[in-house]
Structures are given as structure tokens and as C-alpha cells.
Amino acid sequence: MIGGLFGDIHPSIFWGILAIILAAAELLAPGVFLIWVSLAAALTAGAVLLLPIGEPFQWLAFAIFSALSISGGRLWYLARPVEPEDPLLNDRTARLIGRTVVVTQAISHGEGRVRVDDGSWPVSGPDASTGSYVRITGVSGSILTVEPVPEMPGIASLPPGQT
Q1: Whole-prediction pTM value?
Q2: What is the mean pLDDT of residues 115-126?
Q3: Domain span including residue 128
Q4: How far apart are CA 149 and CA 134, in angstroms?
Q5: Residue 102's beta-bridge partner residues?
Q6: CATH of the domain at 144
Q7: Which of 14, 24, 130, 157 has the fewest Cβ atoms surrounding its Cβ within 10 A?
């Protein structure tokens, strides 16, 4: 089949060309997968160049080299995980922990609301009056856990009823 498709080229040239095409495809659509299949094609080219093996065994060698290179690549990446620059990037609620916010609905019997950026969030925590400052200490589902913050110098509290 290889000889029939490409004339009288040596099978190692076919496998070498396939390796180059797969490596180029990896560059165009990166996903760190095709590079391992490209490596398998290159190894098959080397095996065909060194050993006189028939076409069915070339495909078998390619399949084995593919499985080994993909498994090896997976193990290599698992041993060297890439740490994100900002682990909280897509975790909005976790990013809120530590922020100081204003109570918009008095916290009474452990429940109230605070203003965070352009939204209002339900909170649980010790009683606090409207306009007082609280610090977000945790998150449980969509409910923020808060603790009171002493009066902040230079910042006036909101009058009751104001948000």
C-alpha cells in the first residue's frame, strides 16, 4: 500500500515525511498530542531504514511506537505539571476572600447582604449594621462568610439605608 500510493519511494522516506507532516500539524494546532505520534513515525522510519520489515509490521511498529510515545509523553507531563500564574483566575468566589466590603442589608441572626463590586451577595456572620465594614473570610456555595472590621480610618461609613 505504501509503495502503491507513493511509487517506488523507500518506506523510510514515507515514514519520515509522515513524521514531518504530523510535527507541522502540531505546530498549527497545538495540543501536545500529534508530536508524540510524529515521534512514533520518526522511530518507524528509523526502524524501516535499519531493518527490512514488511508493510504490516511497519504499521504494527508504528502502532507500538505511538502507544509508547504517547504514554511516555503523558508520564513526562504528569511528572512536570505546569503551575498556573493565577490559580484563582476562574474561581471568582475564592478571589473574594480577604476583601473588605460594606454591609448593605444588616447582618441579623447571622444573615445579611454585602455589596461586592457591582453585585449584592448573601453573607453569614456576626451581627453588623448597614454601612459597616466586614472582611470576607470564606465562601460556602454562594454565601460569603464575614467577620467585622474595626472602623477604617479615613473612610466614612454609609448612612443606614444607603448602598
Answers
A1: 0.53
A2: 91
A3: 92-148
A4: 5
A5: 115, 133
A6: 2.40.50.140
A7: 24
Answer for the pair 123, 151: CB distance below 8 angstroms, yes or no.
Answer: no
Under the banding of pLDDT at 50, 70 and 90, the label for residue 85 is: confident
73 and 97 belong to one structural domain: no
> 75 and 28 in one domain?
yes
Boundary residue ending a domain (79, 100, 124) = 79
Q: E strand or H helix at 73, and its extent?
A: helix 55-79
Distances (CA, A) of 71 to 27, 35, 66, 150: 20, 12, 8, 56
State the residue for C-alpha cell 454565601: 143
Q: Mind listing the pLDDT tens digit for each residue in 21-50?
A: 999 999 888 777 899 999 999 999 999 999
Classify residue 155: in a domain, yes or no.
Answer: no
Residue 44 maps to a domain: yes
